[in-house]
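We were asked to recover a plausible sequence for a given structure. The inputs and outputs are reproduced exactly as logged, with field labels preserved.

PROBLEM: sequence recovery
POSITIONS: 428
GIVEN STRUCTURE:
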């Protein structure tokens, strides 16, 4: 972890800041051709291709009839997991459901002298969830992706996961997933986008995955909708001298353990805090840490502690970096909320540690990464509905606006547009 003193320097011109900005530049050319070939094969050969790729990439030999995981396996997994874990899943589901209920949109209509205008909000019909399997199993991802779809009223939710463990299956059971397919990678994304003999074609694909999954989602966008192209995880902590260095260090490590490309960033007004956090990370926590190799590489490459003059500068730098997770660990965190513009999720106060948001609080943990918080939002109910404009015009309403439409059509040189209004005007 590198400590960088920014006091008296313009942060945009500092090499270490720009290094973090460029962190997510991925050589997609290395993977693009392989992903396109996988998509092409699945589109053309269906289940046959899925079976081949499952054996090749996941080392699992299956037949087409094994692609669907029977409902009984989900129920069995739910019964077999530890009681305290099952209860945690249930509590998380309820909290997520209650929070996302607040995001529901309503259709509306307004009337004005012979014209009725409105917006009709309807849920998507079929949604596909991608959930990593095997060692990288995240049952919380099932909950986070499925619950807002359920709240939105999506008719059918299917899930693809390579070799899912009992926790992932139990989470799928709690969420009422309609069908779970034993398939992963780019081939799973292609199957949900185009459909096969077994896998149902969906309208939208959501969920995290590796570079192959991300590129597959990018390539099928337009055939189906997707949630986002997610990059490596990241956390940024704004802290002053009141912060507990042990707590801050643990929070930074919570992202570093995810991925060697994960970024853990501290922006602080206290030089002592920066030094204590670094010392505690390397000399205490990492010593016997089970995921030491991953976390240490992440911290060595993308761990930074920036020392700034004041908290206003800290917020400016945080906005520039636009992090996925932003913790504000200061004496008066609410004083800074209006200064923060770009962040996927904002955690205020000493006890609002990011992992609580990952699992149990209620807001969604599917968040924009790689500075896309400048223009993107967390996954929510609004991602699982679509809106249609509703328009009714009476004769009286037509007469009020017809000439304006004709004149605008003339300005664009679109004669038939003007004509469709004129023929009605003339008959009147």
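RECOVERED SEQUENCE:
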């Amino acid at each position: 972890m590198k400590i960088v003193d920014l006091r008296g320097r313009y942060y945009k011109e500092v090499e270490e800041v720009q290094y973090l900005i460029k962190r997510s530049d991925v050589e997609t050319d290395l993977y693009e051709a392989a992903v396109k070939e996988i998509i092409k094969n699945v589109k053309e050969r269906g289940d046959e291709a899925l079976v081949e790729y499952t054996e090749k990439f996941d080392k699992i030999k299956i037949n087409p009839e094994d692609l669907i995981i029977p409902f009984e396996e989900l129920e069995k997994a739910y019964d077999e997991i530890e009681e305290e874990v099952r209860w945690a899943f249930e509590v998380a589901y309820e909290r997520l459901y209650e929070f996302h209920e607040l995001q529901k949109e309503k259709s509306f209509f307004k009337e004005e002298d012979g014209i009725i205008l409105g917006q009709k909000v309807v849920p998507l019909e079929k949604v596909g969830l991608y959930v990593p399997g095997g060692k990288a199993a995240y049952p919380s991802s099932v909950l986070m992706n499925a619950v807002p779809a359920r709240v939105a009223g999506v008719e059918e939710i299917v899930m693809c996961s390579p070799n899912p463990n009992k926790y992932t299956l139990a989470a799928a059971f709690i969420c009422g997933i309609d069908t779970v397919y034993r398939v992963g990678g780019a081939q799973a994304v292609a199957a949900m986008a185009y459909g096969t003999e077994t896998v149902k074609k969906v309208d939208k694909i959501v969920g995290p995955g590796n570079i192959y999954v991300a590129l597959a989602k990018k390539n099928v966008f337009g055939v189906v909708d997707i949630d986002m192209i997610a990059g490596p995880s990241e956390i940024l902590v704004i802290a002053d001298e009141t912060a507990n260095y042990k707590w801050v260090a643990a929070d930074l490590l919570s992202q570093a353990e995810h991925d060697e490309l994960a970024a853990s960033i501290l922006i602080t007004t206290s030089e002592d805090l920066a030094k204590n956090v670094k010392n505690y990370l390397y000399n205490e926590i990492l010593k016997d840490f089970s995921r030491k190799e991953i976390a240490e590489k992440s911290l060595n490459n993308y761990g930074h502690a920036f020392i700034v003059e004041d908290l206003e500068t800290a917020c400016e730098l945080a906005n520039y970096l636009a992090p996925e997770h932003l913790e504000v660990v200061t004496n008066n965190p609410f004083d800074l909320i209006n200064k923060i513009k770009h962040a996927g999720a904002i955690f205020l106060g000493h006890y609002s540690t990011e992992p609580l948001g990952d699992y149990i609080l209620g807001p969604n943990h599917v968040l924009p990464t790689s500075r896309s918080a400048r223009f993107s939002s967390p996954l929510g109910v609004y991602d699982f509905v679509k809106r249609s404009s509703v328009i009714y015009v009476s004769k009286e309403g037509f007469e009020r606006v017809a000439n304006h439409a004709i004149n605008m059509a003339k300005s664009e040189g679109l004669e038939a547009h003007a004509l469709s209004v004129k023929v009605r005007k003339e008959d009147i």
